[in-house]
């Protein structure tokens, strides 16, 4: 699933929540103490984040890891 699976879905979720919160990629990166380029790569599904990064993103977005992962899981294709 690399590239088209979990990473891409996670990136879409992060992007949607970020837009919902009303912040830029740069602001998200600052809040999460990540590089803006890395946030961009995450949102495009080009990187697979560690649990520490998921936690930093959730905190920076004012949400929980559970919400982010639950939204990813809900979008996974059912087999």
Model description:
This protein is mostly helical and 79 residues long. The protein is 68% helix and 0% strand. Helix 1 (6-21) packs across helix 5 (65-75). The model has no long low-confidence stretch (mean pLDDT 94).
Distance between the termini: 14 Å
Tally of contiguous helical segments: 5
What structural class do you assign from the helix and strand content? mainly alpha
- Please compute the radius of gyration using only Cα atoms: 12 Å
User: What percent of residues adopt helix (DSSP H or I)?
Assistant: 55-70%
- Major sheet, described briefly? none
What's the pLDDT, averaged over the residues? 94
Shape: globular
Return the string of H and E elements. Answer: HHHHH
- Percent of residues in β-strands: under 5%
Poorly predicted regions are none
Quick one: how many beta strands?
Answer: 0
GO molecular function: DNA binding; DNA-binding transcription factor activity
Keywords: DNA-binding
GO cellular component, one term: cytosol
Organism: Polyangium jinanense
């Amino acid at each position: 699933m690399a590239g088209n699976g979990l990473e891409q879905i996670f990136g879409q979720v992060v992007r949607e929540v970020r837009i919902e919160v009303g912040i830029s990629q740069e602001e998200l990166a600052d809040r999460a103490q990540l590089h803006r380029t890395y946030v961009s790569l995450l949102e495009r599904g080009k990187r697979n984040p560690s649990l520490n990064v998921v936690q930093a993103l959730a905190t920076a977005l004012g949400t929980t890891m559970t919400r982010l992962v639950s939204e990813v899981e809900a979008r996974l294709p059912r087999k």
